[in-house]
Design brief:
The chain has 3 helices and 3 strands; from the N terminus they run αααβββ. The chain is an alpha+beta fold and 144 residues long. A hairpin with a 6-residue loop joins β1 and β2.
């Protein structure tokens, strides 16, 4: 008498057998991955806040240059414009800011630098932001 050989299990039935033994694997995987996901989320938000603070600082520096380079602008016009922009911008992404407008090193040029701290999601961690804008002072020149 010939003995019948049992048929090899099909791949789908093998997979079902493996999956049936994995009860409880998802909660463990979630417990391991959740901190990584949360850290990645906060890192993405922190990077966004940093770039918003940079944009705010650059806009304030450009405002300062625009005001100070105007024809016969009063001394301190650029500084006042940048401070007004930062105070009234409403973004608040940049804190502890300082404004420096330089016209002395080159009388025909204006350079404004805004420095501050970007808001931080982590207590005790500070991200310094510095942005500079540059322009030529408007003046009357003789033609060719």
């Amino acid at each position: 008498m010939k003995h019948a050989r049992p048929a090899a299990p099909r791949p789908a039935s093998r997979l079902r057998g493996v999956l049936a033994r994995d009860d409880g694997a998802s909660p463990i995987e979630l417990a391991i991955l959740l901190p990584v996901i949360v850290v990645a989320l906060f890192a993405a938000i922190q990077v966004s806040v940093y770039f918003l603070a940079r944009s705010e600082a650059l806009a304030a520096a450009e405002e300062a240059v625009t005001a100070q380079r105007a024809y016969q602008a009063a001394a301190g016009a650029g500084d006042a414009r940048a401070r007004a922009y930062l105070t009234g911008s409403g973004g608040g992404w940049l804190g502890g800011w300082t404004v420096r407008v330089d016209t002395a090193s080159q009388p025909t040029q204006v350079t404004a630098t805004v420095t501050g701290q970007a808001l931080s999601l982590l207590p005790g961690v500070h991200f310094t932001v510095t942005q500079t804008a540059h322009g030529s002072v408007e003046r009357v020149t003789e033609g060719p």
